[in-house]
Amino acid sequence: MDARYLEPEIETAARPTLRAVQEQRLHEQVEHAYRSSPFYRRKLDAASVKPGDVHSLDDLRRLPFTTKDELKQDQADHPLWGTLLAVPFADCLRVHMTSATTGRPLAFLDTRDDWYGFYHSYARSLWAFGIRSSDMVMAAFSYGPWIGYWSGFYAAQDLGCLVFPAGGFGTDQRIDALRTYPITVLGCTPSYALFLAEQAQKKGIDLAKETKIRITWHTGEPGASIPATKAKIEAAFGAKAYDLPGLTEIAAWGFECDARSGLTHVHEDYCYPEVLDEDDRPVKPGEKGELVFTSLYRKAMPLLRYRTRDLVQLADRPCPCGRTLVAFEGGVLARLDDMKKVRGIIVYPRRIEEIVRGHAGVDEFQIVFRRVDGLDDILVRIDPAPALSNAECQGLCRVLEDGLRVGLGIRVTVETTEPGGLPRWDHKARRVRDERSEVPF
Ligand SMILES: [Zn+2]
Q1: Which residue segment(s) compose the domain that 368 sits in?
Q2: Average of per-residue pLDDT values in the chain
Q3: Counting CB atoms within 10 angstroms of each CB, which of 1, 46, 210, 271 has the fewest?
Q4: CATH number of residue 394's parent domain
Q5: What is the pLDDT of residues 226-241, one digit of tens each?
Q6: Same domain for 236 and 313?
Q7: CA–CA separation, 294 vs 29, rounded Å?
Q8: 268 band by pLDDT with thresholds 50, 70 and 90
Q9: d(CA 312, ligand 1 centre) in Å
């Protein structure tokens, strides 16, 4: 049988061994950032920290945080790449961009070694899902400056898989290729996986029966770590679905393994994670907090204590797979920036998805935060499966209203649209609209 780990010396390392690797890389990275990045020279000088002060992981707390807003401001003030850039421009191999909802996207540069680190750690995740060189892989992400397509493609190639580059294909062409070629693995966003299945179904094609897909992996959105969404994808493809969380600025930093225990492992030799409470103190195992990463490998744009705005829960149990890497319970639990307050209650859109996706009659949905008669209100619009009768649609709305009221602790209005009435997403889905003029956050 195949080895379970791609790099057992790291993935199953004794904690002191891993810590030594991390501390060595941390020290080098802080030295490099201070010496070569004007951005970090300024920040560390302002915090009165010298690289020589940072030897151990505990010393990390002396360093100031870095935020995405700071990086965007740096690039706006010093176009095009900002003062963060810590290597000669000629040493850069690739540029990727974050998917900005407002303003110019953040441009991120990598050297050849940086780029290798990004896709090689990603390959370690694909291996953990059970993907091997005998697999044929379709990367069904959009071809462009988004890192998701390229890193998935290169990672599969790194394992020696036969890669089908479907980045420029439309949905119909992708469905045709999945039926024609012996493609066993599909990588895409979870929203797109559901869209692909829906489009196939409309043509009378059952992807679970008419393709050879055995593994799907999903990135760009946390859907594959939401049990109901994952179950829907697995049923549509007759395959096992895996979550692969990542950040353009840091790494494809985590993966669920073939033990499928609900834990997400972290490539902590590439990026050192801190999980911090509201007062920026480390949480205890079992507790939730904001994920903060320090890149231990990227030299072009080295990030120290980067606030991800992702909420995670530090695991307090080992994974049966035997990996010693730090793990989170259930992937990214919420984006702190997505948090909404409705009549004094905190609501995360992910929680609504968890409840809505548990119902087979829902093909797509949209969440609207609005104000009705001066009061905050939540409307969930459901795009029903075409097979449902009017009465079944009405029944589904009532069942969902009950489920959401119990699950969120607040009354929610649910209504249906015409089948196919809501937008579908082939990249990052935008299912949430906030129509309130004054948002309390
Ligand atoms: Zn595991």
Answers
A1: 339-434
A2: 93
A3: 1
A4: 3.30.300.30
A5: 999 999 999 999 999 9
A6: yes
A7: 9
A8: very high
A9: 17
Q: Is 260 left (phi over 0), alpha (psi -120 to 50) or beta?
A: left
Compute, in angstroms, the gap from residue 355 CA to the centroid of ligand 1: 26
Ligand 1 centroid to residue 319 C-alpha, Å: 5
Dist. CA 44 → ligand 1 center (Å) = 37
For residues 411 and 439, give the distance between their C-alpha atoms in angstroms, rounded to a whole number.
Answer: 19
Q: What does the pLDDT average to over 358-366?
A: 92
pLDDT of residue 101: 61
Per-residue 3-state assignment (H helix, E strand, C coil) for 120-161: HHHHHHHHHHCCCCCCEEEECCCCCCCHHHHHHHHHHHHCCC
Q: Is residue 353 part of a domain?
A: yes
Ligand 1 centroid from CA 232, angstroms:
22
Task: Indicate whether 330 and 363 sit together in one domain.
Answer: no
Distance from Cα 5 to the centre of ligand 1, integer Å: 10
Q: Is 225 in the same domain as 351?
A: no
Is the confidence at residue 437, as pLDDT, over 70? no
Q: How far is the CA of 321 from the centre of ligand 1 (A)?
A: 4
User: Mean pLDDT over residues 30-49, rounded?
Assistant: 98
Percent of the chain with pLDDT over 70: 98
Say how many Å lie between the CA of residue 339 and the centre of ligand 1: 29
Residue 329 backbone phi and psi in degrees, to 5: -80, 110
- Give residue 441's pLDDT band: very low, low, confident or very high (50, 70, 90): very low
> For 317-329, what is each residue's pLDDT tens digit?
999 999 999 999 9
Same domain, 375 and 309: no
- CATH assignment of the domain containing 133: 3.40.50.12780
Is 15 in the same domain as 35? yes
User: Is 42 part of a structural domain of the chain?
Assistant: yes
- 38 and 142 both lie in a single domain: yes
Whether residues 120 and 249 share a domain: the answer is yes
* Dihedral angle sign, alpha carbons of residues 124, 332, 74, 50: negative
Strand 432-434 relative to strand 362-372, pairing: parallel
- Clarify whether residues 359 and 227 are in a common domain: no
Give pLDDT tens digits for 23-33: 999 999 999 99
Distance CA 80, CA 381 (A): 41
